[in-house]
């Protein structure tokens, strides 16, 4: 990511610069947001394990697990084959309240928390990572942007639609600007009380079904990235052209389309947040979205693993279950450990974010690590399944194809690593 | 009539779990095992909620007997659309020995206390398969019963129940108040949507003890031993019918 970004976060980074010993004792007093401690009636402080959920979170997880198994699983293979999301799946996602998890009930949302979204995304990804990413983008990017930055009128107009029947798309990347996001070329020219947008976007997820697009365009190229502004563009706006969806290796049922803006007229009131602050919003939201993607990769790995182990316990060769061969056991245990580590990174990053504490480095770590774990897990699972793992009759090969995008989108692995390094560097400034 | 329906729900070991017997053959392993609402109880809750949505009844009260964990089951029912819950606290040895007779006494007491129009239960629980609680409850209350219901319709102050019986379907019309037990094809239970799970947090669950209802829950039964079913043995192929008869006689089957 561009150097200026680190300056925004350096203030929060200065808290994380103590040697380990002092860190333990000093952490709570140094942090502007003290850690919440749960205490029993006797006043004894307890620190529950990361896999501790509130009753609400547990119920949500169970409900989504059941729903995904019964109402998404039957469609997965067909959707992947046809590279199309089934309408029935889209409708039921809204019906179940999965598209407006953090949206206030005032706007027909579920009114739950960020961690609940993470659990939902993980459960969905166990069954179909494409459905999970649709849900992730909606909840962690679109809904959050509207909720945090929308004016009363914008919230009124869009939030209730987003929680009931409208999908949103986040448009940042272009053909010539991926990791170098801020060199985007889409231009928004001001005229009186409206803007004319010209340019094109690439790799836009959900575009096939989206009803609203959050478009990052530059109102003042001479100001560099400080001219980037977020515009709300409705699907039926004249001049907005949604291109043919990409024919992808994986995540096939999630639509990924190029967009073209040909003199698209957008009223001034459709600016989300402030002019020239678009870059800040993009970074901020992508930091959260990162945890969502980590949850997706985590669910993908776990789902793949859960589909493979029963086979290894059943399949016999040389008179014993293949699970019982030490070579297999060691590989399986290694992969299980990686998944668990990825889980803890993800849950911790989510809890940090919820607690209002600095979480960006941890979020980068979670996304980077879980994407790698997903790659390892799916690759190993195909091997463990042997020949059948290589066929489309079993779901394993789909997980293998789906996981690759994890190291690429919402910040490539290299970008994550560079971002982490910048934080680490700052930590040692005294 | 109050227009109130009482629905009993039981927390049982999840249907997908592989059951294991404890090494001392005293009971099945329940620690750390996944539990959920009995599937027939889910169908019962769904029917009650449907009736409320059709405005045939006014309130759905869901009841569960058991330890603290029974609250989870009640919450799930609340998330499906029930209005409030009653948790009848039964713990430890009492809970292990809790059977249809005790539960039906509790349901009968609550039905009177809540002035219920209907008591809807699942036809049986998937752990003990007793298929007795509904029938006993009706007997204790001296109310008519419509068991194994695959279809329900209110007709004035009577209920028409289509029952699944061995020979096919039987239709009966019974007076209210009545006890109904739900069979598999009565309906398809809904999923608790996330917004409903959130709403369920605000719904009330009252806590009572069997003694408060004047119910004695001592059991008249004692479980002596629990065994797993015998392991499935390999089959045997025979060449002729005579052979088959000889083998069957040998095995003492004929």
TrEMBL record, chain A:
<dbReference type="Pfam" id="PF02771">
    <property type="entry name" value="Acyl-CoA_dh_N"/>
</dbReference>
<comment type="similarity">
    <text>Belongs to the acyl-CoA dehydrogenase family.</text>
</comment>
<dbReference type="GO" id="GO:0006631">
    <property type="term" value="P:fatty acid metabolic process"/>
</dbReference>
<dbReference type="InterPro" id="IPR006089">
    <property type="entry name" value="Acyl-CoA_DH_CS"/>
</dbReference>
<dbReference type="Pfam" id="PF00441">
    <property type="entry name" value="Acyl-CoA_dh_1"/>
</dbReference>
<dbReference type="InterPro" id="IPR009100">
    <property type="entry name" value="AcylCoA_DH/oxidase_NM_dom_sf"/>
</dbReference>
<keyword id="KW-0597">Phosphoprotein</keyword>
<dbReference type="InterPro" id="IPR006091">
    <property type="entry name" value="Acyl-CoA_Oxase/DH_mid-dom"/>
</dbReference>
<keyword id="KW-0560">Oxidoreductase</keyword>
<keyword id="KW-0007">Acetylation</keyword>
<dbReference type="Pfam" id="PF02770">
    <property type="entry name" value="Acyl-CoA_dh_M"/>
</dbReference>
<comment type="pathway">
    <text>Lipid metabolism; mitochondrial fatty acid beta-oxidation.</text>
</comment>
<dbReference type="GO" id="GO:0003853">
    <property type="term" value="F:short-chain 2-methyl fatty acyl-CoA dehydrogenase activity"/>
</dbReference>
<keyword id="KW-0496">Mitochondrion</keyword>
<feature type="domain" description="Acyl-CoA dehydrogenase/oxidase C-terminal">
    <location>
        <begin position="276"/>
        <end position="423"/>
    </location>
</feature>
<protein>
    <recommendedName>
        <fullName>Short/branched chain specific acyl-CoA dehydrogenase, mitochondrial</fullName>
        <ecNumber>1.3.8.5</ecNumber>
    </recommendedName>
</protein>
<keyword id="KW-0443">Lipid metabolism</keyword>
<dbReference type="InterPro" id="IPR036250">
    <property type="entry name" value="AcylCo_DH-like_C"/>
</dbReference>
<comment type="subunit">
    <text>Homotetramer.</text>
</comment>
<keyword id="KW-0276">Fatty acid metabolism</keyword>
<dbReference type="InterPro" id="IPR037069">
    <property type="entry name" value="AcylCoA_DH/ox_N_sf"/>
</dbReference>
<keyword id="KW-0274">FAD</keyword>
TrEMBL record, chain B:
<keyword id="KW-0496">Mitochondrion</keyword>
<comment type="subunit">
    <text>Heterodimer of an alpha and a beta subunit.</text>
</comment>
<dbReference type="Pfam" id="PF01012">
    <property type="entry name" value="ETF"/>
</dbReference>
<dbReference type="InterPro" id="IPR012255">
    <property type="entry name" value="ETF_b"/>
</dbReference>
<keyword id="KW-0249">Electron transport</keyword>
<protein>
    <recommendedName>
        <fullName>Electron transfer flavoprotein subunit beta</fullName>
    </recommendedName>
</protein>
<dbReference type="GO" id="GO:0045251">
    <property type="term" value="C:electron transfer flavoprotein complex"/>
</dbReference>
<feature type="domain" description="Electron transfer flavoprotein alpha/beta-subunit N-terminal">
    <location>
        <begin position="25"/>
        <end position="217"/>
    </location>
</feature>
<dbReference type="GO" id="GO:0005759">
    <property type="term" value="C:mitochondrial matrix"/>
</dbReference>
<dbReference type="InterPro" id="IPR014730">
    <property type="entry name" value="ETF_a/b_N"/>
</dbReference>
<keyword id="KW-0813">Transport</keyword>
<dbReference type="InterPro" id="IPR033948">
    <property type="entry name" value="ETF_beta_N"/>
</dbReference>
<dbReference type="GO" id="GO:0009055">
    <property type="term" value="F:electron transfer activity"/>
</dbReference>
<dbReference type="InterPro" id="IPR000049">
    <property type="entry name" value="ET-Flavoprotein_bsu_CS"/>
</dbReference>
<comment type="similarity">
    <text>Belongs to the ETF beta-subunit/FixA family.</text>
</comment>
<dbReference type="GO" id="GO:0033539">
    <property type="term" value="P:fatty acid beta-oxidation using acyl-CoA dehydrogenase"/>
</dbReference>
<comment type="function">
    <text>The electron transfer flavoprotein serves as a specific electron acceptor for several dehydrogenases, including five acyl-CoA dehydrogenases, glutaryl-CoA and sarcosine dehydrogenase. It transfers the electrons to the main mitochondrial respiratory chain via ETF-ubiquinone oxidoreductase (ETF dehydrogenase).</text>
</comment>
<dbReference type="InterPro" id="IPR014729">
    <property type="entry name" value="Rossmann-like_a/b/a_fold"/>
</dbReference>
<dbReference type="GO" id="GO:0009063">
    <property type="term" value="P:amino acid catabolic process"/>
</dbReference>
<comment type="subunit">
    <text>Heterodimer composed of ETFA and ETFB. Identified in a complex that contains ETFA, ETFB and ETFRF1. Interacts with ACADM.</text>
</comment>
<comment type="function">
    <text>Heterodimeric electron transfer flavoprotein that accepts electrons from several mitochondrial dehydrogenases, including acyl-CoA dehydrogenases, glutaryl-CoA and sarcosine dehydrogenase. It transfers the electrons to the main mitochondrial respiratory chain via ETF-ubiquinone oxidoreductase. Required for normal mitochondrial fatty acid oxidation and normal amino acid metabolism. ETFB binds an AMP molecule that probably has a purely structural role.</text>
</comment>
């Amino acid at each position: 990511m561009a150097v200026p970004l680190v300056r925004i976060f350096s203030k929060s980074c200065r808290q994380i610069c103590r040697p380990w010993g002092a860190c333990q004792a000093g952490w709570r007093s140094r942090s502007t947001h003290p850690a919440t401690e749960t205490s029993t009636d006797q006043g004894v402080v307890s620190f529950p394990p990361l896999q501790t959920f509130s009753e609400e979170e547990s119920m949500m997880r169970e409900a989504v697990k059941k729903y995904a198994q019964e109402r998404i699983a039957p469609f997965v293979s067909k959707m992947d084959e046809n590279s199309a999301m089934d309408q029935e799946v889209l409708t039921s996602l809204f019906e179940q309240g999965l598209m407006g998890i953090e949206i206030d009930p005032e706007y027909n949302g579920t009114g739950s928390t960020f961690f609940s979204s993470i659990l939902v995304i993980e459960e969905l990804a166990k069954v179909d990572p494409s459905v999970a990413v649709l849900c992730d983008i909606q909840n962690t990017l679109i809904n959050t942007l509207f909720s945090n930055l929308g004016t009363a009128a914008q919230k009124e107009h869009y939030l209730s639609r987003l929680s009931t029947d409208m999908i949103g798309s986040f448009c940042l990347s272009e053909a010539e600007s991926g990791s170098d996001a801020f060199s985007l070329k889409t231009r928004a020219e001001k005229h009186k009380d409206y803007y004319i947008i010209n340019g094109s976007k690439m790799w836009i997820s959900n575009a096939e079904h989206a009803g609203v697009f959050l478009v990052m365009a530059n109102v003042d190229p001479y100001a560099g990235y400080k001219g980037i502004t977020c515009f709300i563009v409705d699907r039926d706006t004249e001049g907005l052209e949604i291109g043919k969806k990409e024919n992808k290796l994986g995540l096939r049922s999630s639509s990924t389309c190029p967009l073209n803006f040909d003199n698209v007229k957008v009223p001034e009131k459709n600016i989300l947040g402030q002019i020239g602050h678009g870059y800040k919003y993009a970074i901020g939201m992508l930091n959260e979205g990162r945890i969502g993607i980590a949850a997706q990769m985590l669910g993908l790995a776990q789902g793949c693993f859960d589909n493979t182990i029963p086979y290894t316990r059943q399949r016999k060769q040389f008179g014993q279950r293949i699970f019982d061969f030490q070579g297999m056991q060691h590989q399986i245990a290694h992969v299980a450990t990686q998944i668990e580590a990825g889980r803890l990174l993800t849950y911790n990053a989510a809890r940090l974010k919820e607690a209002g504490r600095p979480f960006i480095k941890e979020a980068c770590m979670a996304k980077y690590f879980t994407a790698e774990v997903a790659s390892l897990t799916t690759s190993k699972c195909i091997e463990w399944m042997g020949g059948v793992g290589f066929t489309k009759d079993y779901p394993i090969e789909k997980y293998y194809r789906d996981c690759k995008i994890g190291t690429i989108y919402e910040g490539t692995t290299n970008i994550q690593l560079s971002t982490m390094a910048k934080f680490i560097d700052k930590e040692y400034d005294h | 009539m109050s227009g109130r329906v009482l629905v009993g729900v039981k927390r049982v070991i999840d249907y997908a779990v592989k059951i294991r017997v404890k090494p001392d053959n005293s009971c099945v392993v329940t620690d750390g095992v996944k539990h959920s609402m009995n599937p027939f109880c889910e169908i019962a809750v769904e029917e009650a909620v449907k009736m409320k949505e059709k405005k045939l009844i006014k309130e759905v009260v869901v009841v569960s007997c058991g330890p603290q964990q029974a609250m989870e089951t009640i919450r799930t029912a609340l998330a499906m659309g029930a209005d409030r819950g009653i948790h009848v606290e039964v713990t430890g040895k009492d809970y292990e020995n809790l059977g249809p007779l005790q539960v039906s006494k509790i349901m009968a007491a609550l039905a009177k206390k809540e002035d219920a129009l209907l008591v809807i239960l699942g036809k049986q629980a998937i752990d003990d398969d007793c298929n007795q609680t509904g029938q006993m409850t009706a007997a204790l209350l001296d109310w008519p019963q419509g068991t194994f219901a695959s279809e329900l319709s209110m007709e004035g102050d009577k209920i028409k129940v289509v029952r699944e019986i061995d020979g096919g379907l039987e239709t009966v019309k019974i007076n209210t108040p009545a006890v109904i037990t739900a069979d598999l094809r009565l309906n398809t239970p809904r999923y608790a949507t996330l917004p409903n799970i959130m709403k369920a947090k605000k719904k009330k669950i009252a806590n009572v003890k069997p003694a408060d209802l004047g119910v004695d829950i001592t059991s008249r039964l004692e479980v002596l031993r629990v065994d797993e079913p015998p392991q499935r043995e390999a089959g045997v192929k025979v060449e002729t019918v005579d052979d088959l008869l000889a083998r069957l006689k040998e095995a003492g089957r004929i």
